[in-house]
Write a structure and sequence with these properties.
Length: about 100
């Protein structure tokens, strides 16, 4: 049986990714640094859960559930779900 994420490869820096690829990174425990509106943001994955960072400051609370995290955490009134659903809005910097 084919894994639903089997075709995903790591993305070179400076390119956007599709929403399902973003979900794959979150579901497999990866951390993602991305560019949005010419600013770098970082999604960490720690014991407390996931949180969003900007300029070295934590800007969201911790979430254990990835779906709640991407729906509730917002940048400029756009949820992470909305940002990563539109490939014109983001670019990947690094995936850890």
């Amino acid at each position: 049986m084919k894994d639903k994420y089997e075709d995903f490869q790591d993305v070179p820096a400076g390119y956007p990714i599709e929403y399902n690829h973003f979900l794959y990174y979150l579901e497999t425990g990866r951390e993602v640094e991305f560019l949005y509106d010419n600013q770098i943001y970082f999604i960490s994955n720690q014991g407390e859960g996931r949180t969003l960072w900007h300029d070295g400051k934590q800007i969201s609370k911790f979430f254990k559930d990835n779906q709640i995290f991407i729906n509730e955490v917002k940048i400029d009134d756009l949820s992470l779900r909305e940002i990563f659903s539109d490939t014109s809005l983001h670019k990947i910097e690094t995936v850890f």
